[in-house]
Structures are given as structure tokens and as C-alpha cells.
Write a structure and sequence with these properties.
The complex is a heterodimer of chains A (248) and B (210). Chain A has 248 residues and is of the alpha+beta class. Chain A folds into 2 domains: 58 residues, Alpha-Beta Plaits, CATH 3.30.70; 157 residues, no CATH class. Chain A has 8 helices and 13 strands. In chain A, a hairpin with a 5-residue loop joins strand 2 and strand 3. In chain A, helix 4 runs antiparallel to helix 6. Chain A starts with a strand and ends in a 5-residue tail after the last helix. Chain B has a 5-stranded antiparallel β-sheet. The chains are: A alpha+beta (248), B alpha+beta (210). The interface between A and B is large, with 77 and 76 residues.
């Protein structure tokens, strides 16, 4: 994004809307966008707060364009063809059977909530998780598409300096790997210059129990009381008995 | 993505905050899913949602109902916020009866949702829990700001905007209701709950972060 200095009247209305604090009044009669900090989320433009139409969306080239792909929820990822930073994950598990008993799913969202992240920090997490050995969510996850080597979790070199509002690292593994994954995430969380929000997916057992939650809490990790719950109304309903709860 | 997850707040505050979404999966049940999503919208509208929206256009505070409904033609996933267990029960009961065929997901306090599911005859199928925020948490804004900004999982509601509007409310320049409606505008999907934001601002006493 940029601000046309000839149109800007330095009213400052746009400044607080910037999700990462990249817009400032420069003391020269116009507001300016810090291009290094700007994640191209488009909120300043979309919310139409500028009475002078001074905010301009620039044509973005690779690799800067990934800022928009990961930060603007109305932008469609060219790699996945869908909007948003993640996939349908457990939201449609009742029809896809993506997660079965004996598995744990994870979504590790770098930069959330509201801090933003550079892709080099995303790579630290993907590489830490890859060392454990996981199955990446390939279909529809834009972070996976940026990997140059899924075995090591290495990302493409040319994107590492880009900043995005958030990026989700999505994967699943046997539930027996839960402790190792959480330990790896805890260790890498000390090496990054941002935050990440961790989400953990569990297929509910027929008796209503949540084995992954119980295991995580026994290891000292606290699950918040307000999860996301698929209530099983999707059709055709996936036949979990046919899969036998077998870990993929 | 996980845009309904990771909301922060007290149990009392979260007990009137039920994110509900309805989504197809490409290759499984996406055919005519825009029509099913439109029926979902008709159902939840009977339960006075605090917000609803479609990512392709925006939420009820930025777009009218018919524009949002047309947005389902481009993206047949719809999102709303209900504000009571009774509303959730009524909506889930109708959704079960109408059998739209799309996946329905609720993000809220687990015990409350499980209780409502029991009354309606549904069972929680798959659950996604937040394990919190890790890393350089010193970079986060104050807790009372996070309780508001985390209602927009896409992080389109800036902490700077929330802090600025909270100050304006405390200084008597605008009402908590006016501030909450301004905060709701950047949230494109409609999961931001302005009623809860209003209550949080009214409850906040002193200066932000103190």
C-alpha cells in the first residue's frame, strides 16, 4: 500500500486502522506507509476511511505479493485457489475423514494474534516440526506450498524476508507423537521474534472423550475452554468405521 | 482457517458468544452449496445474530443482507455470532431438521455447546482446541485489548484502533456502542461480536493497559 502525498491532508484517520502500525504522520504534511512493516492486508483501503482516496493499492510482484496472500482474507491464494490462510481442516472432518482416532492435528499460526511475522520465523517452526516427522497438510495450505523441501521444512529462499500478518503451519501425526511435537514447539517458541497460536485437533471418541486433550493436559499444556466443534451435520457422512480408526 | 478460534476472555464474557459457521467441502458436497448456505442464513437470522457475513463481501455492519446473500455465490461459507444457548439450541435444532448437508461448526465454551448438542440430539464430532499463545508474548497488546481483537481471527481489527476507541469511550467522546460498531467494520467474515465488545468496553475502568 502507499499514500499519495499530493492527496493526503494528514487527517490521521487511517493511522489506527493499520493492523501492524505501519502508517504514521511524517510531519511533512502527509501520512506515509512503512513498506518494510506493511503486510499488504488492505484494511486501510477496504474500510474506506480516507476521505481523499489517497490510499493506493500497488501492483505487487513476487515475492512481496505473498504479503497480501497471507494477510488479506479477501485475497485468493494462487497456490491453493482459496481465500484464507489455512484449510478446511476439522471444519469438514465429518465428510472428509481427514482426522481419525489415534491421530492429532495441529495448526500453528505464526504472527497471531495481531503481531505479524517474517517468513524466516515461519521456517524455524516448519523445520522444528519436520525434525519430529509429521504429515503436512498439502491440499490447500499455502505455507506448505512455499516449502522447497517438505522433508526438512525448508521454505523457498526468496520469501524468507517477507512479512505477513500470519501464516499457518498445518500438519497431522500419530497421537503417540504428541509429546514430541509439543516439546519441539515449546523449544522453537524461544527462538522466534514473534508469537504463534497453537491449535490441536481431536476426533471425538464414541464415549465422548478427547484423548489428545487429556494427553496434552497431562503434559502440562492447558487447552482453552472454548474450542471449535464440528457437530457432525455434513453429508455424506464419512464412514469412520470403514477406516477402522487406523492411523494413516 | 482457524478464525473463530483463540478468542480470549473470562468464562462470563465468553458465555454469550457462539460463533457458528456452515461450510461445504470441494469435491464432496459443494454442488448447490450456495443455496444451502442461503438457507442456513435464513435460519440463523431468526435468532438475532450479533453479526454475520461472507468473506467475499463483508459483514452486516458494512453490507446489506441481499449483498451478503449474493456473496454466497462466490464463496458458499457463511459465518455468524449468536449470543445465547437458547439461540444456539433453536438454530441447531432447525439445522438438524432441515438437513442442509453442509458441515456446521460452533466455536464457544465446550460444556455449553455439548449441553445444547445433547438437547438437540447431536454429538460433537471433531474438536479443535486452542493451546494458547506461545513465543514473544511481550509483543502482545494489553489483555483487555486482546479480548476484543481476538474476536477477529483474521486480525483485521487493529489493536491500535481498539486502544484508540477505548480511550475515546473513557473520555466520553463516543459511546461504547459507537466504538464497538466501528471496530466491527474491518472484520470481513462477520465473527466479530460488537455486543461483547461493547460490554467489554463498558466494563473496562481505567486507562488502557493499566
Amino acid at each position: 500500500m502507499r499514500i499519495d502525498k499530493d492527496l493526503c491532508i494528514e487527517c490521521g484517520e487511517c493511522v489506527p486502522y493499520c493492523t501492524v502500525g505501519a502508517i504514521a504522520l511524517g510531519g511533512e504534511g502527509f501520512a506515509a506507509v512503512d513498506r518494510d512493516r506493511c503486510v499488504e492486508c488492505g484494511v486501510c483501503l477496504r474500510i474506506a476511511v480516507c476521505s481523499q482516496d489517497a490510499i493506493i493499492r500497488e501492483e505487487l510482484e513476487w515475492p512481496r505479493v505473498i504479503r497480501s496472500h497471507f494477510s488479506d482474507p479477501t485475497a485468493k491464494h494462487p497456490s491453493t485457489g482459496i481465500m484464507g490462510r489455512g484449510t478446511m481442516e476439522m471444519k469438514t472432518n465429518d465428510v472428509t475423514g481427514r482426522y481419525v482416532s489415534g491421530q492429532v492435528g495441529f495448526g500453528v499460526e505464526l504472527g497471531r494474534p495481531g503481531v505479524s511475522t517474517c517468513m524466516a520465523d515461519v521456517e524455524k517452526v516448519t523445520m522444528a516440526v519436520a525434525r519430529v516427522g509429521v504429515e503436512w497438510e498439502v491440499k490447500g495450505n499455502p505455507t506448505t506450498y512455499l516449502m522447497s523441501d517438505q522433508a526438512t521444512g525448508k521454505l523457498q529462499e526468496d520469501v524468507l524476508k517477507e512479512r505477513v500478518l500470519s501464516a499457518i503451519v498445518e500438519f497431522k501425526a500419530p497421537s503417540s507423537s504428541l509429546s514430541e511435537i509439543l516439546t519441539a514447539l515449546k523449544e522453537v517458541s524461544r527462538e522466534i521474534d514473534t508469537v504463534f497460536s497453537v491449535s490441536m485437533i481431536t476426533k471425538v471418541e464414541p464415549d465422548g472423550s478427547l484423548p489428545n486433550v487429556e494427553a496434552a493436559e497431562s503434559l502440562g499444556f492447558k487447552a482453552l475452554p472454548n474450542p471449535k466443534i464440528n457437530v457432525g451435520l455434513g453429508r455424506p457422512l464419512f464412514d469412520f468405521s470403514a477406516k477402522g480408526g487406523e492411523v494413516l | 482457517m482457524t478464525h473463530s478460534l483463540h478468542r480470549q476472555g473470562t468464562r462470563e464474557s465468553l458465555s454469550r458468544d457462539f460463533c457458528v459457521m456452515c461450510l461445504p467441502e470441494l469435491g464432496y458436497n459443494h454442488l448447490n452449496s450456495n443455496q444451502m448456505a442461503s438457507r442456513f442464513l435464513d435460519i440463523v437470522l431468526r435468532y438475532n445474530p450479533a453479526n454475520y457475513g461472507v468473506i467475499t463481501c463483508g459483514n452486516m455492519y458494512t453490507h446489506d443482507l441481499e449483498t451478503i446473500r449474493k456473496g454466497l455465490d462466490q464463496s458458499p461459507a457463511i459465518f455468524c455470532v449468536l449470543t445465547s444457548e437458547e439461540a444456539l439450541e433453536g438454530a441447531l435444532r432447525e439445522l438438524k431438521e432441515q438437513d442442509l448437508g453442509l458441515s456446521v461448526v460452533v466455536a464457544a465454551l465446550y460444556d455449553l455447546v455439548a449441553g445444547v448438542c445433547g438437547k438437540v440430539g447431536l454429538d460433537p464430532h471433531t474438536v479443535n482446541h486452542s493451546l494458547g499463545v506461545w513465543g514473544k508474548t511481550e509483543k502482545l497488546p494489553p489483555g483487555e485489548v486482546l479480548e476484543i481483537t481476538t474476536m477477529c481471527g483474521h486480525a483485521q481489527v487493529s489493536s491500535f484502533l481498539v486502544e484508540s476507541l477505548m480511550e475515546s469511550v473513557k473520555n466520553g467522546k463516543i459511546s461504547a456502542r459507537e466504538a464497538a460498531l466501528q471496530m466491527a467494520r474491518p472484520c470481513v467474515c462477520g465473527f466479530f461480536n460488537p455486543q461483547r465488545a461493547e460490554r467489554l468496553m463498558e466494563a473496562a475502568g481505567g486507562p488502557v493497559g493499566k
